[in-house]
Amino acid sequence: MNRVVYILLFVLLGMALPAIAQKPFDEGIIRYHAVFKSLNPLKDTKSYDGTYTYTIKGKMVRKELKLDNGYNDIVIMNGNNNTLYTLQTTGGKKYAIQHDMEVHLARQKKFEGFTVKDDGEKKTIGGYDAQKAVVTYTDGTNKTIYYSKQWQPVFEHTFDRLPGANFIPLEFDVTEDQQEVLIHFTIEKIELTPVENAAFRIPADYKMVSNEEYKELNK
After folding, report:
1. Residue 157 · residue 53 · CB < 8 Å
2. Are 97 and 83 in contact (CB under 8 A)?
3. Residue 218 has pLDDT above 90, yes or no
């Protein structure tokens, strides 16, 4: 009888190991290599390389995109007080553009409730073990990704196209501007490390404006 009990305990422990091994990603850096490419042959056909970096501390997320053509875009999202800013430079002037967090989250609703189905294929990406899977959204659209369940984001809106994900995507594609631009992301670094609160503050040399005010400035 004791032998049976020990066997059952061993089996149950083995089943629980993946859950125990998964680490909450609550503070640190996630960096991707990003490649931008136009899908419209009538527009710019060049590819642009760059990096897309997530700086995370609890429910605060800073996303910074840098491309080799000089383009730079920063998003600062604070889930603690529901604020969202983008940092832009226009005409040599720096602006912190305030967006409505509720409107932003409402736009992401269509990505909620997705399912993930593994296809069995695995590979190593950037030194990390990656599982291939198909993500299917409630509208029937789907995308192929590689991901890792070694870490779980603590803020459900860390990844716009994967709200509530209990994994970190390692390789995936995103289309923007009415499907005219394809962005391919490949993981470069995942690091659990202390992050200063200053990373999520609006720099003093940026003028704070509403989204409507910024649109007027660019007319």
Report:
1. no
2. no
3. no
